[in-house]
Specification:
This protein is mostly helical and 489 residues long. Among the domains are: 41 residues, no CATH class; 100 residues, no CATH class. The strands form four sheets. Strands 3-2-7 form a three-stranded antiparallel β-sheet. A three-stranded antiparallel β-sheet has the order 4-5-6, with no helix packed on it. Helix 6 crosses helix 13, helix 9 runs antiparallel to helix 11 and helix 17 runs antiparallel to helix 19.
Length: 489
Protein backbone atom coordinates (compact mmCIF):
# COMPACT_ATOMS: atom_id res chain seq x y z
CA UNK A 1 0.00 0.00 0.00
CA UNK A 2 2.90 2.36 0.78
CA UNK A 3 4.12 2.29 -2.83
CA UNK A 4 0.90 4.02 -3.90
CA UNK A 5 1.77 7.21 -1.95
CA UNK A 6 1.98 10.11 -4.45
CA UNK A 7 5.48 11.49 -4.99
CA UNK A 8 4.43 15.07 -4.23
CA UNK A 9 3.46 14.01 -0.70
CA UNK A 10 6.93 12.57 -0.05
CA UNK A 11 8.96 15.57 -1.15
CA UNK A 12 9.39 18.88 0.65
CA UNK A 13 7.41 21.60 -1.14
CA UNK A 14 7.77 24.82 0.90
CA UNK A 15 11.56 24.51 1.28
CA UNK A 16 13.80 27.48 1.99
CA UNK A 17 15.28 27.16 -1.49
CA UNK A 18 11.93 28.31 -2.87
CA UNK A 19 11.78 31.39 -0.63
CA UNK A 20 11.90 34.20 -3.21
CA UNK A 21 12.56 36.85 -0.53
CA UNK A 22 15.99 35.69 0.59
CA UNK A 23 17.63 32.56 -0.68
CA UNK A 24 17.76 33.43 -4.38
CA UNK A 25 19.89 36.50 -3.67
CA UNK A 26 22.04 35.56 -0.67
CA UNK A 27 22.56 31.83 -0.95
CA UNK A 28 22.29 31.58 2.86
CA UNK A 29 19.52 31.20 5.40
CA UNK A 30 18.05 34.55 6.46
CA UNK A 31 18.38 35.76 10.04
CA UNK A 32 14.89 36.14 11.51
CA UNK A 33 15.89 38.07 14.64
CA UNK A 34 14.59 41.54 13.79
CA UNK A 35 15.97 42.98 17.02
CA UNK A 36 19.50 42.06 16.01
CA UNK A 37 18.97 43.28 12.45
CA UNK A 38 17.57 46.68 13.47
CA UNK A 39 19.54 47.42 16.63
CA UNK A 40 22.66 45.34 16.11
CA UNK A 41 23.69 46.88 12.79
CA UNK A 42 27.43 46.16 12.55
CA UNK A 43 27.55 44.68 16.06
CA UNK A 44 25.25 41.76 15.32
CA UNK A 45 24.89 39.33 18.21
CA UNK A 46 27.24 41.42 20.36
CA UNK A 47 24.27 43.56 21.41
CA UNK A 48 23.14 40.59 23.50
CA UNK A 49 26.49 40.48 25.29
CA UNK A 50 25.63 44.00 26.41
CA UNK A 51 22.31 42.73 27.78
CA UNK A 52 24.20 40.48 30.21
CA UNK A 53 25.86 43.54 31.73
CA UNK A 54 22.59 44.22 33.54
CA UNK A 55 22.79 42.52 36.93
CA UNK A 56 19.16 41.35 36.90
CA UNK A 57 19.34 39.93 33.37
CA UNK A 58 22.65 38.19 34.14
CA UNK A 59 21.34 36.68 37.38
CA UNK A 60 18.19 35.33 35.71
CA UNK A 61 20.06 33.85 32.74
CA UNK A 62 22.63 32.33 35.08
CA UNK A 63 19.90 30.85 37.26
CA UNK A 64 18.31 29.17 34.25
CA UNK A 65 21.62 27.77 33.03
CA UNK A 66 22.69 26.53 36.46
CA UNK A 67 19.33 24.80 36.87
CA UNK A 68 20.42 22.52 34.02
CA UNK A 69 24.11 22.24 34.91
CA UNK A 70 23.32 21.24 38.51
CA UNK A 71 21.42 18.11 37.45
CA UNK A 72 23.00 14.69 37.67
CA UNK A 73 23.13 12.79 34.38
CA UNK A 74 23.70 9.25 33.14
CA UNK A 75 24.18 7.52 29.79
CA UNK A 76 21.67 4.75 28.99
CA UNK A 77 22.05 2.27 26.08
CA UNK A 78 19.36 2.28 23.40
CA UNK A 79 18.60 -1.37 24.21
CA UNK A 80 20.03 -4.38 26.04
CA UNK A 81 21.72 -5.57 22.85
CA UNK A 82 25.47 -6.13 23.30
CA UNK A 83 26.43 -3.59 20.61
CA UNK A 84 24.17 -0.92 22.11
CA UNK A 85 25.60 -1.54 25.58
CA UNK A 86 29.15 -1.28 24.18
CA UNK A 87 28.28 1.97 22.40
CA UNK A 88 26.88 3.43 25.62
CA UNK A 89 30.06 2.44 27.50
CA UNK A 90 32.28 4.14 24.90
CA UNK A 91 30.20 7.32 24.91
CA UNK A 92 30.12 7.36 28.72
CA UNK A 93 33.89 6.99 28.90
CA UNK A 94 34.56 9.73 26.34
CA UNK A 95 32.12 12.13 27.98
CA UNK A 96 33.92 11.70 31.28
CA UNK A 97 37.15 12.69 29.52
CA UNK A 98 35.58 15.94 28.30
CA UNK A 99 34.91 19.00 30.42
CA UNK A 100 31.25 18.13 30.07
CA UNK A 101 29.70 20.79 32.31
CA UNK A 102 31.77 23.46 30.56
CA UNK A 103 30.58 22.13 27.20
CA UNK A 104 26.93 22.24 28.30
CA UNK A 105 27.40 25.74 29.71
CA UNK A 106 28.81 26.91 26.38
CA UNK A 107 25.96 25.34 24.40
CA UNK A 108 23.40 26.98 26.71
CA UNK A 109 24.64 30.37 25.51
CA UNK A 110 22.08 29.69 22.79
CA UNK A 111 19.43 30.62 25.36
CA UNK A 112 20.57 34.23 25.06
CA UNK A 113 21.67 34.50 21.42
CA UNK A 114 19.59 31.87 19.63
CA UNK A 115 22.36 29.43 18.73
CA UNK A 116 25.78 28.30 19.93
CA UNK A 117 28.63 26.59 18.07
CA UNK A 118 31.30 24.21 19.37
CA UNK A 119 34.15 22.67 17.39
CA UNK A 120 34.92 19.00 18.12
CA UNK A 121 38.61 18.10 18.29
CA UNK A 122 38.93 14.44 17.25
CA UNK A 123 41.96 12.20 17.75
CA UNK A 124 42.88 8.52 17.45
CA UNK A 125 43.57 6.72 20.72
CA UNK A 126 44.61 3.12 20.04
CA UNK A 127 41.74 1.49 18.16
CA UNK A 128 39.27 4.17 19.19
CA UNK A 129 38.37 7.55 17.66
CA UNK A 130 37.94 9.95 20.55
CA UNK A 131 36.28 13.37 20.93
CA UNK A 132 39.17 14.85 22.91
CA UNK A 133 37.75 18.35 23.37
CA UNK A 134 34.98 20.70 22.25
CA UNK A 135 35.97 24.35 21.80
CA UNK A 136 33.19 26.94 21.83
CA UNK A 137 33.34 29.43 18.94
CA UNK A 138 31.95 32.94 18.41
CA UNK A 139 28.55 32.70 16.72
CA UNK A 140 29.24 35.84 14.66
CA UNK A 141 31.77 33.86 12.59
CA UNK A 142 29.13 31.53 11.14
CA UNK A 143 26.14 31.52 8.82
CA UNK A 144 23.82 28.73 7.69
CA UNK A 145 23.40 27.54 4.13
CA UNK A 146 20.15 26.71 2.39
CA UNK A 147 20.35 23.10 3.61
CA UNK A 148 20.69 24.31 7.23
CA UNK A 149 24.40 23.42 7.08
CA UNK A 150 26.83 25.49 9.13
CA UNK A 151 29.29 27.63 7.12
CA UNK A 152 32.36 29.53 8.34
CA UNK A 153 32.82 33.18 7.35
CA UNK A 154 36.38 33.83 6.21
CA UNK A 155 38.35 36.67 4.62
CA UNK A 156 38.08 34.98 1.24
CA UNK A 157 34.36 34.28 1.62
CA UNK A 158 32.86 36.85 4.04
CA UNK A 159 29.21 36.59 2.95
CA UNK A 160 28.31 33.03 2.01
CA UNK A 161 31.01 31.34 4.10
CA UNK A 162 32.97 28.16 3.50
CA UNK A 163 31.68 24.60 3.72
CA UNK A 164 32.69 22.73 6.88
CA UNK A 165 33.57 19.03 7.42
CA UNK A 166 30.81 16.71 8.57
CA UNK A 167 30.75 15.84 12.30
CA UNK A 168 33.22 18.63 13.05
CA UNK A 169 30.89 21.12 14.76
CA UNK A 170 28.04 21.01 17.29
CA UNK A 171 25.26 23.55 16.80
CA UNK A 172 22.73 24.06 19.61
CA UNK A 173 19.63 26.11 18.72
CA UNK A 174 17.12 27.83 21.02
CA UNK A 175 13.71 29.25 20.06
CA UNK A 176 13.86 28.07 16.48
CA UNK A 177 10.82 28.84 14.32
CA UNK A 178 10.07 27.67 10.79
CA UNK A 179 13.23 25.51 10.83
CA UNK A 180 15.39 28.60 11.21
CA UNK A 181 18.76 27.33 12.55
CA UNK A 182 19.73 30.76 13.91
CA UNK A 183 16.97 30.54 16.51
CA UNK A 184 15.67 33.48 18.51
CA UNK A 185 17.20 33.78 21.96
CA UNK A 186 16.00 35.44 25.13
CA UNK A 187 18.15 38.45 24.25
CA UNK A 188 15.42 39.35 21.77
CA UNK A 189 12.98 39.70 24.68
CA UNK A 190 15.41 41.27 27.14
CA UNK A 191 16.98 43.96 24.95
CA UNK A 192 14.30 46.65 25.30
CA UNK A 193 13.70 45.83 28.96
CA UNK A 194 17.38 46.42 29.74
CA UNK A 195 17.43 49.51 27.50
CA UNK A 196 14.48 51.18 29.24
CA UNK A 197 15.80 50.22 32.66
CA UNK A 198 19.12 51.91 31.90
CA UNK A 199 17.36 55.02 30.65
CA UNK A 200 15.20 55.08 33.77
CA UNK A 201 18.29 54.67 35.95
CA UNK A 202 20.10 57.53 34.20
CA UNK A 203 17.09 59.84 34.65
CA UNK A 204 16.91 58.73 38.28
CA UNK A 205 20.55 59.73 38.79
CA UNK A 206 19.94 63.13 37.18
CA UNK A 207 16.91 63.61 39.41
CA UNK A 208 18.90 62.65 42.51
CA UNK A 209 21.70 65.03 41.60
CA UNK A 210 19.29 67.84 40.89
CA UNK A 211 17.11 67.52 43.96
CA UNK A 212 19.50 65.77 46.32
CA UNK A 213 21.79 68.82 46.56
CA UNK A 214 20.60 72.42 46.23
CA UNK A 215 22.02 74.61 43.45
CA UNK A 216 24.62 77.15 44.61
CA UNK A 217 23.97 80.76 43.55
CA UNK A 218 26.65 83.46 43.86
CA UNK A 219 25.81 87.14 43.85
CA UNK A 220 28.18 90.02 43.23
CA UNK A 221 27.68 93.76 42.99
CA UNK A 222 28.09 96.10 40.08
CA UNK A 223 31.62 96.87 39.05
CA UNK A 224 32.98 93.47 40.12
CA UNK A 225 35.95 92.62 37.95
CA UNK A 226 36.61 89.24 36.29
CA UNK A 227 39.19 88.20 38.87
CA UNK A 228 36.68 88.61 41.70
CA UNK A 229 34.03 86.72 39.69
CA UNK A 230 36.42 83.80 39.28
CA UNK A 231 37.11 83.90 43.01
CA UNK A 232 33.38 83.65 43.70
CA UNK A 233 32.96 80.75 41.24
CA UNK A 234 35.87 78.83 42.76
CA UNK A 235 34.36 79.35 46.20
CA UNK A 236 31.02 77.90 45.08
CA UNK A 237 32.71 74.91 43.47
CA UNK A 238 34.63 74.18 46.64
CA UNK A 239 31.39 74.07 48.64
CA UNK A 240 30.72 70.54 47.42
CA UNK A 241 33.88 69.33 49.16
CA UNK A 242 34.42 71.76 52.07
CA UNK A 243 32.17 72.73 54.92
CA UNK A 244 33.36 76.36 54.83
CA UNK A 245 34.57 78.82 52.17
CA UNK A 246 35.77 82.40 52.08
CA UNK A 247 34.55 85.09 49.68
CA UNK A 248 35.03 88.84 49.36
CA UNK A 249 32.88 91.01 51.65
CA UNK A 250 30.80 92.50 48.84
CA UNK A 251 29.66 89.08 47.54
CA UNK A 252 27.06 86.53 48.71
CA UNK A 253 26.36 82.84 48.20
CA UNK A 254 22.88 81.35 48.45
CA UNK A 255 21.50 77.83 48.11
CA UNK A 256 18.64 77.51 45.65
CA UNK A 257 16.42 74.46 46.09
CA UNK A 258 14.40 73.42 43.05
CA UNK A 259 10.73 72.71 43.51
CA UNK A 260 9.93 69.07 42.87
CA UNK A 261 7.26 68.46 40.28
CA UNK A 262 7.50 64.67 40.53
CA UNK A 263 8.85 61.86 42.69
CA UNK A 264 11.88 59.60 42.46
CA UNK A 265 9.50 56.69 43.06
CA UNK A 266 8.43 56.99 39.42
CA UNK A 267 11.90 55.92 38.26
CA UNK A 268 12.14 53.29 40.98
CA UNK A 269 8.83 51.75 39.89
CA UNK A 270 9.97 51.81 36.26
CA UNK A 271 13.17 49.91 37.06
CA UNK A 272 11.29 47.44 39.28
CA UNK A 273 8.75 46.84 36.50
CA UNK A 274 11.52 46.13 33.99
CA UNK A 275 13.12 43.68 36.43
CA UNK A 276 9.76 41.97 36.84
CA UNK A 277 9.30 41.61 33.09
CA UNK A 278 12.82 40.18 32.75
CA UNK A 279 11.96 37.56 35.36
CA UNK A 280 8.81 36.61 33.47
CA UNK A 281 10.69 36.42 30.15
CA UNK A 282 13.50 34.21 31.46
CA UNK A 283 11.92 32.12 34.23
CA UNK A 284 8.22 32.40 33.45
CA UNK A 285 7.58 33.68 36.97
CA UNK A 286 8.08 36.60 39.33
CA UNK A 287 7.30 35.22 42.78
CA UNK A 288 8.19 38.23 44.93
CA UNK A 289 6.17 40.67 42.84
CA UNK A 290 2.96 38.86 42.03
CA UNK A 291 2.08 36.84 45.14
CA UNK A 292 1.24 39.60 47.60
CA UNK A 293 0.03 38.68 51.08
CA UNK A 294 -2.43 35.93 50.21
CA UNK A 295 -2.17 32.58 48.52
CA UNK A 296 1.61 32.44 48.70
CA UNK A 297 1.72 28.65 49.14
CA UNK A 298 -0.51 27.94 46.15
CA UNK A 299 1.26 30.53 44.02
CA UNK A 300 4.60 29.12 45.07
CA UNK A 301 3.54 25.66 43.93
CA UNK A 302 2.39 27.04 40.55
CA UNK A 303 5.66 28.92 40.07
CA UNK A 304 7.63 25.82 41.01
CA UNK A 305 5.71 23.82 38.39
CA UNK A 306 6.52 26.47 35.77
CA UNK A 307 10.19 26.41 36.75
CA UNK A 308 10.31 22.63 36.42
CA UNK A 309 8.67 22.75 33.00
CA UNK A 310 11.27 25.26 31.76
CA UNK A 311 14.14 23.15 33.13
CA UNK A 312 12.73 20.02 31.49
CA UNK A 313 12.38 21.84 28.16
CA UNK A 314 15.97 23.13 28.26
CA UNK A 315 17.25 19.67 29.18
CA UNK A 316 15.26 17.96 26.42
CA UNK A 317 16.60 20.29 23.72
CA UNK A 318 20.18 20.01 25.03
CA UNK A 319 19.97 16.21 25.20
CA UNK A 320 18.76 16.04 21.59
CA UNK A 321 21.70 18.19 20.46
CA UNK A 322 24.26 16.06 22.32
CA UNK A 323 22.80 12.76 21.13
CA UNK A 324 22.55 13.79 17.48
CA UNK A 325 25.73 15.81 17.03
CA UNK A 326 28.21 14.33 19.54
CA UNK A 327 27.09 10.84 20.58
CA UNK A 328 26.05 9.80 17.07
CA UNK A 329 29.46 10.39 15.41
CA UNK A 330 31.24 8.74 18.37
CA UNK A 331 29.08 5.64 17.85
CA UNK A 332 29.40 5.70 14.04
CA UNK A 333 33.19 5.89 14.24
CA UNK A 334 33.62 3.20 16.91
CA UNK A 335 30.55 0.90 16.85
CA UNK A 336 29.04 1.43 13.37
CA UNK A 337 26.04 -0.90 13.69
CA UNK A 338 24.98 0.19 17.18
CA UNK A 339 22.17 2.57 18.11
CA UNK A 340 22.91 5.93 19.70
CA UNK A 341 22.59 5.92 23.52
CA UNK A 342 20.54 8.43 25.48
CA UNK A 343 21.62 10.95 28.07
CA UNK A 344 19.21 11.18 31.01
CA UNK A 345 19.25 14.20 33.31
CA UNK A 346 17.81 13.63 36.79
CA UNK A 347 15.05 16.19 37.40
CA UNK A 348 13.58 15.54 40.85
CA UNK A 349 10.22 17.19 41.41
CA UNK A 350 9.88 18.71 44.85
CA UNK A 351 7.42 16.76 47.02
CA UNK A 352 4.52 18.48 48.76
CA UNK A 353 5.51 17.69 52.36
CA UNK A 354 2.30 19.19 53.76
CA UNK A 355 0.22 16.65 51.83
CA UNK A 356 2.48 13.80 52.95
CA UNK A 357 2.34 14.96 56.59
CA UNK A 358 -1.47 15.02 56.42
CA UNK A 359 -1.53 11.40 55.19
CA UNK A 360 1.01 10.36 57.82
CA UNK A 361 -1.15 11.95 60.51
CA UNK A 362 -4.22 9.99 59.39
CA UNK A 363 -2.23 6.76 59.30
CA UNK A 364 -0.95 7.42 62.82
CA UNK A 365 -4.50 7.95 64.04
CA UNK A 366 -5.36 4.58 62.49
CA UNK A 367 -2.63 2.90 64.51
CA UNK A 368 0.40 3.02 62.20
CA UNK A 369 3.71 4.50 63.33
CA UNK A 370 6.44 5.59 60.84
CA UNK A 371 9.94 4.19 61.15
CA UNK A 372 12.99 6.35 61.78
CA UNK A 373 14.25 5.52 58.26
CA UNK A 374 10.97 6.78 56.80
CA UNK A 375 11.23 10.07 58.73
CA UNK A 376 14.81 10.65 57.57
CA UNK A 377 14.00 9.78 53.95
CA UNK A 378 11.03 12.11 53.60
CA UNK A 379 11.59 14.86 56.18
CA UNK A 380 15.37 14.89 56.57
CA UNK A 381 17.65 14.62 59.58
CA UNK A 382 17.31 16.45 62.88
CA UNK A 383 14.35 14.54 64.33
CA UNK A 384 14.27 12.09 67.22
CA UNK A 385 11.47 10.06 68.74
CA UNK A 386 9.93 11.56 71.84
CA UNK A 387 10.72 9.49 74.93
CA UNK A 388 7.78 8.02 76.87
CA UNK A 389 7.42 9.28 80.43
CA UNK A 390 8.23 6.57 83.02
CA UNK A 391 5.60 5.98 85.72
CA UNK A 392 6.64 3.85 88.75
CA UNK A 393 4.53 0.75 89.44
CA UNK A 394 3.37 2.05 92.84
CA UNK A 395 2.11 5.27 91.29
CA UNK A 396 0.44 3.40 88.41
CA UNK A 397 -1.42 1.09 90.86
CA UNK A 398 -2.55 4.11 92.86
CA UNK A 399 -3.89 5.77 89.73
CA UNK A 400 -5.74 2.60 88.74
CA UNK A 401 -7.37 2.40 92.18
CA UNK A 402 -8.47 6.01 91.93
CA UNK A 403 -9.87 5.34 88.46
CA UNK A 404 -11.90 2.29 89.61
CA UNK A 405 -13.16 4.22 92.65
CA UNK A 406 -14.28 7.12 90.50
CA UNK A 407 -16.29 4.77 88.27
CA UNK A 408 -18.57 4.05 91.23
CA UNK A 409 -19.43 7.72 91.38
CA UNK A 410 -20.24 8.03 87.66
CA UNK A 411 -23.65 9.33 86.68
CA UNK A 412 -26.10 7.24 84.69
CA UNK A 413 -25.26 9.14 81.50
CA UNK A 414 -21.54 8.58 82.01
CA UNK A 415 -22.02 4.88 82.70
CA UNK A 416 -24.17 4.55 79.58
CA UNK A 417 -21.54 6.28 77.46
CA UNK A 418 -18.88 3.98 78.87
CA UNK A 419 -20.94 0.90 78.00
CA UNK A 420 -21.57 2.17 74.47
CA UNK A 421 -17.83 2.62 74.03
CA UNK A 422 -17.20 -0.96 75.19
CA UNK A 423 -19.80 -2.37 72.81
CA UNK A 424 -18.64 -0.27 69.85
CA UNK A 425 -14.97 -1.21 70.19
CA UNK A 426 -15.18 -4.63 68.41
CA UNK A 427 -17.10 -3.12 65.49
CA UNK A 428 -14.67 -0.23 65.16
CA UNK A 429 -11.77 -2.66 65.29
CA UNK A 430 -13.30 -4.47 62.33
CA UNK A 431 -13.57 -1.25 60.36
CA UNK A 432 -9.99 -0.39 61.24
CA UNK A 433 -8.89 -3.80 59.97
CA UNK A 434 -10.47 -2.96 56.59
CA UNK A 435 -8.28 0.14 56.37
CA UNK A 436 -5.18 -1.87 57.26
CA UNK A 437 -5.88 -4.51 54.62
CA UNK A 438 -6.44 -1.89 51.93
CA UNK A 439 -3.25 -0.06 52.92
CA UNK A 440 -1.22 -3.26 52.61
CA UNK A 441 -2.65 -4.00 49.16
CA UNK A 442 -1.76 -0.67 47.46
CA UNK A 443 1.63 0.43 46.13
CA UNK A 444 1.58 4.11 47.15
CA UNK A 445 -0.08 6.48 49.61
CA UNK A 446 -1.65 8.33 46.70
CA UNK A 447 -3.39 5.14 45.57
CA UNK A 448 -4.56 4.51 49.15
CA UNK A 449 -5.98 8.02 49.39
CA UNK A 450 -7.87 7.59 46.11
CA UNK A 451 -9.36 4.28 47.34
CA UNK A 452 -10.85 5.72 50.56
CA UNK A 453 -14.29 6.43 49.00
CA UNK A 454 -14.52 2.76 47.95
CA UNK A 455 -13.72 1.62 51.50
CA UNK A 456 -16.55 3.72 52.90
CA UNK A 457 -18.98 2.14 50.41
CA UNK A 458 -17.88 -1.39 51.38
CA UNK A 459 -18.23 -0.84 55.15
CA UNK A 460 -20.81 -2.95 57.05
CA UNK A 461 -22.25 -0.42 59.50
CA UNK A 462 -25.52 -2.23 60.24
CA UNK A 463 -24.45 -3.34 63.74
CA UNK A 464 -23.18 0.13 64.61
CA UNK A 465 -26.36 1.76 63.31
CA UNK A 466 -28.54 -0.54 65.44
CA UNK A 467 -26.45 0.17 68.52
CA UNK A 468 -26.64 3.92 67.99
CA UNK A 469 -30.41 3.68 67.49
CA UNK A 470 -30.76 1.85 70.82
CA UNK A 471 -28.55 4.44 72.48
CA UNK A 472 -30.77 7.25 71.16
CA UNK A 473 -33.88 5.51 72.56
CA UNK A 474 -32.24 5.08 75.96
CA UNK A 475 -31.13 8.70 75.87
CA UNK A 476 -34.67 9.85 75.09
CA UNK A 477 -36.17 7.72 77.87
CA UNK A 478 -33.56 9.02 80.30
CA UNK A 479 -34.52 12.57 79.39
CA UNK A 480 -38.21 11.82 79.94
CA UNK A 481 -37.40 10.26 83.30
CA UNK A 482 -35.40 13.29 84.40
CA UNK A 483 -38.28 15.55 83.38
CA UNK A 484 -40.76 13.50 85.45
CA UNK A 485 -38.42 13.60 88.45
CA UNK A 486 -38.25 17.37 88.19
CA UNK A 487 -42.05 17.57 88.06
CA UNK A 488 -42.49 15.49 91.22
CA UNK A 489 -40.21 17.75 93.26
Amino acid sequence: MGENLPKELKNEVASIQRDDLYSVYTGTMPVKDEMMLKRGLTQGLKIYDDVERDSQAYALLQKRRLAVLSKEWRIEPASEDALDVKAADIVRQQIKGLKFNKLCDGLLDANLKGFAVGEIMWEVNGSEIVAKNVIMRDQARFVFGLENELRLLTQSNPSKGEELPENKFITHTFGSKHDNPYGIGLGNKLYWLVFFKRKGTSFWLVYSEKFGNPTTVGKYGKGTNDEEKRTLMNAMRSMSNDSAVTIPENMAIELLEAKRSGSFETYERLCAYMDKQMSIAVLGETMTTDVGNAGSRAAGQVHNDIRLEIIKADITILAETLEDQLFRPIVEYNVPNANVPQIIFEVDEEEDLNARAEIDKKLFEMGYEPTEEYIREHYGDGYQKKALQYIPDAVRESLQKEESFSEAELSADELLASQVDDVLSPSLDGLLEQFKQRLNSVESLKEFKESLPNIYQEMDVKEIAELLADALIVSELTGMGDAMDEGNK
